[in-house]
Protein: TetR/AcrR family transcriptional regulator
Amino acid sequence: MTTTEHAEPAPRRRRGRPGHDQSAILRAAVELFNRRGYDATSMGDLAKELGLTKPAIYHHVTSKEQLLGQALDDALDELTSVVTEASEQRPGEGAYQRLREVVRRSVEVLVAHQPSVTLLLRVRGNSEIEVAALERRRWLDDRLAALVADAVGEGALRDDVPPALVSRLLFGMVNSLVEWYRPDGAYDQGMVADAITSIAFDGLARHETGSP
Structure:
């Protein structure tokens, strides 16, 4: 470098307490919302939990509602991608295979985003953000029910259970993990995904007339 050249200045770092960036604040907020309830949690409570001042938190986020929206998006975005991908027809792969894949991958999503999914399952539509999240959940139910109907049409699933009910039962089985699953527990993610998929689809498999 010549004497007339100057190195570009390093980018200015945003102010804020080290170790408490926006993602860390979001994680703490989700944990606190799950423990205390969203409506019962204030930004002051979150500041106390993190050992920060409220102005320090507002440096990263604008409101408690923004944190809720980010948490619900975290729970829904990847699952939406999984269901959307499975809903698309692929050569050589029927609806039944894609439905099994949705169930397995849904377990993976829940395990990876368990705190956010726990929060999602507790919202009741008390705000516009919650209403929007519930609408996204209904969309997922509808798409999964359509996939079940396609698998029934292929002859791969029994046809005596309404597809919408099957969809609810499948998601219900996966969502029940938030109540008991622990990453450091006795069952790893793969084992749980295998068990749920096997139990669900062995029970749903179509049996020939006269079979037990």
Q: What stands out?
A: Residues 1-18 have pLDDT under 50 and may be disordered. The chain is about 65% helix and 0% strand. Residues 100 and 198 are 9 Å apart (CA to CA).
